[in-house]
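Treating backbone geometry as a discrete language has practical consequences that deserve illustration. Part of our work consisted of pairing the sequence of a single chain with a tokenised description of its backbone. What the numbers capture is local backbone geometry rather than side-chain detail. For completeness, the protein is quoted in full, as a sequence line and a line of structure tokens:
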Amino acid sequence: KTPNWPTGHRMTMLSDPVRTALVVSAALIAGVPGNPSLGRCPNLLGAAHAPKLGHRETRGEGDDTLELVTLSTNPPVWSVSKFLSEEECEHIIANADPDMFDSITYNDVSERSDGSGPIEDYDNAYSTHLARIDPTAGPDAPDAVSLAQAKMMFSGMLDMPGLTTKQSGKLLKVLDVDGSGLIERKEWQKNKRGWRKVQKLVDAFRKRTPELFTRYSKQTTIRQVGERMIRRMAILLGLPAGATNEAYQNGGSDAAFGEDLQVVQYLPGGHYNCHHDSTELASEHDMQRAYTVLFQLRTLTPAQGGQTWFPGAGLDHATTDWFEVEDRCTLNSSCANEGLVVPSVRGTAIVWLSHRSFEGNGTPWHLSGRFADLDRSSLHSGCSVTPGSEKWISNQWVWQKSIERLCEATNVASVGEDATSTSEQHAGVDMQALWANANAAALSRAESGQSRVDL
């Protein structure tokens, strides 16, 4: 039976069973000794709540009734229409607009250099941005690199995958002091005047060809977003309403969820190439965002672009080369016809998990007492906005540590405990019972071959 997809969504349905996505559910819905705090959040949103494409689940009641529609099981992705009212959408935009600034990425040259030296050390730039992708490059940096190799190093350093030959020529001419056609280690490391010129060139590139950079948008953050929005967030995620509201009143969104609400504006040509919202557990950043809740503040037609794209949705974790998937969507001027493509519809919330709830040895993370590693299939991008259009979104990231802190609150009932399934096959079924039969259910629903749903 064809899933009842929201209008405009597209998903590739692969033959791989969704058993893994269901097995992980215990990590987020069961209270067990491995992580006692989660026992106070028995209906925490997890993979078990995304058993199949098009699955519908109702949470909350009255004016706070939310219907979650499963858009993907791997990674788990849901949409909730009319999460925000039109007035709330415009209120967020109006509050953010005066304070918007250019979005940056980790490698943004203006943030990482004052013009007095290299953006990145020579050896580090070689190993990170050249040796990893160029099969002809050795593991150790030579004393000099060719102009073609230097272009690859610049492209990675500047987060500018679309760097043109003409642009790189201008950069390389500045650093090739002796005109040998090579960039020598000493020219790279000790050319302060050259690097100041490089920074000016890059600033000019960003103004003239922003579409060639990894990210082109404006952003700001908002701490106070309104109690209605916080209350509905608690319902959506299955968090204790009392604890969430108290944390919000004491310190805003940052205190409740780990970060303030981010508001992003994409002008014509605006985009954000493929990326993950969280990091590996071993990352130096120690920034584990369990959930992303993306609020769409304006409606865009498919012709206007601005969709959110999950290129790895539905792919098998064990057999997929995730670095290849990332490389294919590095410079996405438009969204490819693979994976999951979600259009921008005002007031809709899109929520997904960034971490696997299932370890390689078969043990759900709450049983092992540790948070699971990054789910590579949560790779996503913001597709380009076409000329004459404008996209507004806001992101509420929810940290693992915030979830555990909120679920440790005492004498607070989870507002999500009354959640019920309204799908044809699972109406009224208790989620614990669904978990108990997850493997058999997943296998029985597995599709054979490959098909596409386009609505």
About this structure: Residues 192-208 form the longest helix (17 residues). The chain has a mean pLDDT of 75. The CA atoms of residues 426 and 434 lie 8 Å apart.
